[in-house]
Amino acid sequence: MTETIPVPSGSVATRIALLSGPEEAQAQTAACTPGLAAGPWTFDAAPGYGPGASLGDTVPAGTPRQGELPAEYREAGAAELDERILRAKAALGSRAVILGHFYQRDEVVRHADFVGDSFQLARAAKIRPEAEAIVFCGVHFMAETADLLSGPDQAVVLPNLAAGCSMADMADADSVAECWEQLTALYGKAPQAGGMRPVIPVTYMNSSAALKAFCGENGGIVCTSSNAASVLEWAFERGQRVLFFPDQHLGRNTAKTMGIPLDAMPMWNPRLPLGGNTAERLQEAKVLLWNGFCSVHKRFTVEQIARARAEHPGVRVIVHPECPMPVVDAADESGSTDYIQKAIAAAPAGSTFAIGTEINMVNRLAAQYPEHTIFCLDPVICPCSTMYRIHPGYLAWVLEGLVAGEVRNRITVPAATAAAARTALERMLAVRP
Ligand code: SF4
Questions:
Q1: Mean pLDDT, the chain, integer
Q2: What is the mean pLDDT of residues 256-262?
Q3: Residue 125 above 80 pLDDT?
Q4: Which of 226, 262, 307, 310 is most buried, judged by most C-beta within 10 A?
């Protein structure tokens, strides 16, 4: 099955030109990696682990590192790579399935059998049980999730090991374990009145398999941006409070819609004792928010919304819940990538949308729905640079490897971690959306 979202004609080169735009626009990219104007759009200058879109993004220790691609892929032109990918794909037939995330570059998405968000894609892998290889054109945690949900004989392949997620990297297993130790020392471990646990850990899908396993082992659960409210309800049926990681914004925005006051949502800074809080403040907490964020979504601002409304009267503003709370509050609606896509599909012709999410998805929607006016809230294009590490050259390299009988860049979650991580995912699947 090929997804219905077509590839727009605008090239990546056009967007590079936009990135190198006027000075005023450049000033707004202060949080962006300057290398975005060239580096990740082609090949990594030095193979390694890819940073996110912010200069301050973490690079976790012990993370997998991508080696240098053979010269024949680095030196091949776009047309040659395209042809090699098509040829390898045809040779593999149903033995391989290619998954492309909504935020992925067009040159890669055009080869995907399925396009969607991370969870849709992980589940899509299950639809092709005959595929020996699942080539995941997304980021590392997504490939791990696909490995958790796919069959034992299926190999999940991440074309470039440098494609991480800066948000997922903001909560590492050691820091979360240390936080948990402090919380259990403060709250105790024993269930309290009515069998309620003192704290339920909830991790966003954008996290490592190790953190999903941590949740599985400690009575916790995974959530997506589509089901975060239902998952928090599940957690509050079982516990007095929630530790939510890694995205503070999704946690705050969701808890706020459930009526939880902001002063009952302290932030947990993993570099400070008690996360930078007093014991008294933590006693009053309902949701402890890990100090993580998405470097792409935190760029959207209330001022951008005001400008969109001034320039496009009647515009419908929809933002992703990974955006900061004031932005979500100022928008008309907030929702997952799936929500945004469905809202646009259901709108009457002639509608105008200002969208607060990653630029590749917005551009693709604009191409798919020419009857609407659809634009990105952020006038300065700042894509997810880690996602962009999946250059077509890497895709050609892994596919040709499969044709030759070699599985390159396989992502495998160790068995002990996988069992506990699946427990947390299964709890989520049992929760109604
Ligand atoms: S858009 Fe943000 S959350 Fe999504 S993969 Fe990129 S850095 Fe991670």
A1: 86
A2: 97
A3: no
A4: 226
In short, whether 58's Cβ falls inside 6 Å of ligand 1 is: no
Greater confidence (44 vs 81) lies with 81
| Residue pLDDT, tens place only, 206-220 | 999 999 999 999 999
Neighbour-count burial of 278, counting CB atoms closer than 10 A to its CB (0-12 exposed, 13-18 middle, 19+ buried): exposed
Single-letter residue type at 427: R
Task: Give me the helix-helix angle, 415-430 and 209-217, nearest 10°.
Answer: 70
Would you place residue 412 in the very low, low, confident or very high pLDDT band (cuts 50, 70, 90)? very high
**Ligand 1 neighbourhood includes 137 CB (under 6 angstroms):** no
Map residue 274 onto helix, strand or coil: helix
- Which residue CA neighbors atom 8 of ligand 1 most closely? 165
Q: Which two tokens stand for residue 189?
A: 């471990």
**How many Å lie between the centroid of ligand 1 and the Cα of residue 53?**
9
Alpha-helical runs (H) found in 300-383: 302-311, 325-330, 337-346, 359-368
Q: Whose CA is nearest to atom 1 of ligand 1?
A: 384
User: How far does the centroid of ligand 1 lie from the alpha carbon of residue 55, in Å?
Assistant: 14
pLDDT-derived band at 39 (thresholds 50, 70, 90) equals very low
Residues 5-34, mean pLDDT to the nearest whole number: 32
CA–CA gap between residue 426 and residue 39 (Å, rounded): 39
Structure tokens at 93: 């037939």
CA 247 to chain centre: 10
Average pLDDT over residues 267-293: 97
Tell which one of 386, 388, 389, 390 to mutate to probe ligand 1, the residue whose CB is within 8 A of the most ligand atoms.
Answer: 386
pLDDT at 185 over 60: yes
- Euclidean distance between CA atoms 41 and 429, whole angstroms: 36
pLDDT value of position 14: 25
Q: Mind giving me the DSSP string for 76-143?
A: --HHHHHHHHHHHHHHHGGGEEEEEETTS-HHHHTT-SEEE-HHHHHHHHHH-TT-SEEEEES-HHHH
Nearest CA to ligand 1 atom 2: 294
Q: Is 65 exposed, middle or buried (0-12, 13-18, 19+ CB in 10 A)?
A: exposed
Q: What angle do CA 339, 262, 289 make, to 5 degrees?
A: 70
Give me the percent of the chain exceeding a pLDDT of 70. Answer: 84
